[in-house]
Amino acid sequence: MKRNSFFITLGISVALLLLVSATTFSWIIGKSSLSLLVGGVTREPIASIFVSRQAPVMLSLLVNPERLESFSQYIASPANRRRSSRELKDLEKTLLANTGLNYDNEIQPWLGEEITLAVTTLDYNHDKSDGVQPGYLLAVATKDPELAKEFLQVSYSRNAIANTSNLVFDQYKGINLVHQRPSKVISSRNFTSSAVVGDFVLFANEPKILRAAINNAQVPDLNLKNSPIYQDSLQTISDPRIGVVYANLPALSAWLDNSSAPETPKALQTLAIGLSIKSEGLVAQTALIGVTGEDNQPPVLSELVGALAYLPANSMLAIAGTNLDQFWQQVETGLDLNSPLQQLLTQLLNRYQEPLGLNLPKDVFSWVKGEYSLALVPNEKGMQPDLVFIAERMPDVEIAPAIAHLDQLAIDQGYSVVDLLIQTTKVKAWTKLITNTDLEEARLGAIVKGVHATITQGNQYEIFTSSVAVMEKVLSKTKRTIVDSRTFQQAISAIPTENDGYFFVNWHEIQPLLEQQLPIVKVAEFAVKPLFKNLRSLTLSSQGSENGVKRATVFLNLGVRE
Question: Where are the beta strands (DSSP E) in 18-78?
Answer without folding.
Answer: 57-61
